[in-house]
Design brief:
The chain has about 400 residues and is an alpha+beta fold. It contains ten helices and 17 strands. It starts with 6 loop residues before the first strand and ends with a strand.
């Protein structure tokens, strides 16, 4: 294993635990994100320390690219509203030589098969496989959840299963760095509308509960409002967040199947192409029970991937840049975690002011993707240099495959 690369951030006067950051080769952490990290380090139930990944940037509740264990409490806003958001990738038997000169037909086929943006399926268009999967694995527990919290029933739930979403969610075709240059299909999505509602609902509950006990105003940030273990709302949240994480995992599985079917139907690729057993499906916005530094904890990974010894993960670069299939090294100081991507350098508003459509077209040369003003806030220049991010975490993961995007569908 490489020499440990983390640096300890200078502690604030009120800090209870230290902050360890894997940011040696990336730009300095922005002030707003640093303030959030210091606030988080003052929470009395954070165990051992806070781990900061190289893609760290300001977020709601806590910085994105942050991992921290808690005892007897969970901060819903730190988990976030895109509960279970993550990545899925499969390797295919298709190689670079099998690809047509233009990939536009393939992109159009994917966009017609998978609802993107705010869209979901309709009752008449939803695939039978999605309905069967919902009925078999999610429906009963969702009905139980709605009996406890009726407002969750009026959400986009089953009809959002197998759909992409908005923002930085994407579907890509990539070439790997092997001699054959195999084609991989990779996608990024989470728990969609229903996960957003669950997250928002319990963030509000945490704030209301703490307001009743006059504890909210004592927090350094209201978004650090937490649910305490032993309360009914805590138990409800654990149940709800677990359900949303299962939804997200299944969402990616079903979507991957739809994408494979869509590109097969175009006739632009060998019809007998296969997807092999090398597949990865991992969350990067979630909370779960784990054991770290002698304690059973609730570990929150907000924009971070589990990287236990031998764990497979996906670290995508920005639109048009490289991505990586990685294997975890089990670094204990990072709570066996790594970054979930490159990490934003600037806000979406700032990106739209700084970059032009011409910039975006230049940075996405060779990639079949949207080249219009609506996606400028996702152009590669908005993100950190993925090579610097990977160099900063060489003690967290080893790279198995380097992927280069050739097609990208944006949410």
């Amino acid at each position: 294993m490489a020499t440990s690369l983390f640096q300890t951030i200078a502690r604030s006067a009120k800090a209870i635990v230290p902050i360890k950051a894997w940011t040696r080769f990336v730009p300095q952490i922005e002030t707003a994100a640093l303030d959030q990290l210091h606030n988080l380090s003052t929470m009395p139930f954070v165990h051992s320390h806070v781990a900061v990944m190289p893609d760290v940037h300001h977020g709601k509740g806590s910085t994105i690219g942050t991992v921290f264990p808690t005892t007897n409490a969970i901060i819903p806003a730190a988990v976030g509203v895109d509960i279970g958001c993550g990545m899925c990738a499969v390797r295919t038997s298709v190689t670079a030589n099998d690809l047509p000169q233009s990939l536009k037909k393939l992109r159009t086929a994917i966009e017609s098969k998978v609802p993107v943006g705010m869209a979901g399926f309709t009752t008449s268009s939803v695939p039978k496989a999605n309905v069967a999967a919902w009925d078999a694995t999610l429906k009963t527990d969702f009905e139980r959840l709605c009996s406890m919290h009726p407002s969750l029933e009026k959400t986009n739930n089953m009809l959002h299963l197998g759909t992409l979403g908005t923002g930085n969610h994407f579907i890509e075709m990539c070439l790997d760095n092997t001699l054959a240059q195999n084609v991989w299909i990779m996608l990024h999505s989470g728990s969609r509308g229903v996960g957003n509602k669950i997250g928002t609902h319990f963030i509000d509950i945490a704030k209301k509960d703490m307001r009743k006990t006059h504890m909210l105003q004592a927090l350094p940030d209201a978004d650090l409002a937490y649910l305490q273990e032993g309360t009914q709302h805590f138990e409800d949240y654990v149940f709800a967040v677990g359900w949303a994480q299962r939804f997200a995992f299944l969402n990616r599985q079903l979507m991957m199947s739809q994408v494979v079917g869509a590109i097969r139907e175009t006739g632009d690729l060998p019809r007998d192409f296969t997807t092999d057993s090398f597949a990865v499906n991992c969350h990067h916005n979630y909370v779960q029970k784990e054991h770290h530094f002698g304690q059973d904890v609730y570990l929150t990974r907000k924009g971070a991937v589990r990287a236990g010894l031998g764990d497979l993960g996906i670290i995508p670069g920005s639109m048009g840049e490289k991505s990586y299939i990685v294997r975890g090294l089990g670094n204990k100081d990072s709570f066996e975690s790594c970054s979930h991507g490159a990490g934003r350098l600037m806000s979406r508003t700032a990106a739209k002011k700084q970059f032009t459509l011409a910039d975006h077209i230049e940075r996405t040369k060779g990639v079949e993707c949207r080249k219009d003003e609506a996606v400028i806030d996702e152009t590669p220049g908005c993100y950190k240099d993925i090579d610097a991010v990977m160099k900063s975490q060489e003690d967290l993961v080893e790279v198995l495959y380097t992927l280069k995007q050739v097609l990208c569908v944006k949410g």
